[in-house]
Task: structure prediction
Amino acid sequence: MAFSQDDVYISHQLSIGEGFPKRVLKTGEEKVRGSAAIEGPVVIGSLDSWNQQTATVMIGPDENIDSEGPQLDDAIISCGSHNNSPYSLHVVGDSRIDDNLDVKRDINAGGIVRAGNNIESQGDVTALCGAHRLSLKKNFDIPHPTKPGWRLRHTCTEAPYNDVYIRGRLKHQNEIILPDYWEEFVDVKSITVNVTPIGVSQHIMVSGITKKKIILSSNSVLPIDCFYHVFATRADGDVLIPEYEGNTPDDYPGNNSEYLINK
Result:
């Protein structure tokens, strides 16, 4: 049986499906006003975004011509877009009610969270399964590939520079060709080179550096054969200031917008 109504107003609770979560939403005088229980699946937004059921709640772009869409400045998580409504899911961040109480809106997902665009967090991002928090050391922790009953943990290198690097082996040549994009991507004056001769001592030296290559020379009669590491500082932003006076990241004297900050 189909029911059609222009407007439906429910002042207390809405229940769709079998049963009702009494422990969560309560009933009687203790019931949570304005609460709803929907068994699902539920599709919100564009009905053409899926051709099959993929989740309990499926949220697509807003295609309602009466909708003006949310404001960009408040968006924390967004996926999909259509006309004036750039977000499928819009979560407002921390809101201060008074001096003694902070209200936080969190997304707690027990499974996989998939975003077609960017995920931006103004707080901590933590993967509980691996105890990995982005504000801490960047790492991976996996079962050991060769020792049963052991695990392997690596962390990312951290330094007081916004550096990038390349590495490799140079054999029977004297030029390290730099990536094409390094020409505008790095500060050429910041380039440093480390070489390790292979087989025998070759007395290798850096005789020239340009935007496109590094030229090596050797006092050995043998052709150059070496491993190399080349580091350079990115040129697309301010120079990192590793130490500064202050009590919070807001006191950073450089451009804070270039960094993800955890306070």
In short: Residues 71-83, 94-104 have pLDDT under 50 and may be disordered. The first strand starts at residue 13 and ends at 16. The two ends are 55 Å apart (CA to CA). The CA atoms of residues 86 and 143 lie 41 Å apart.
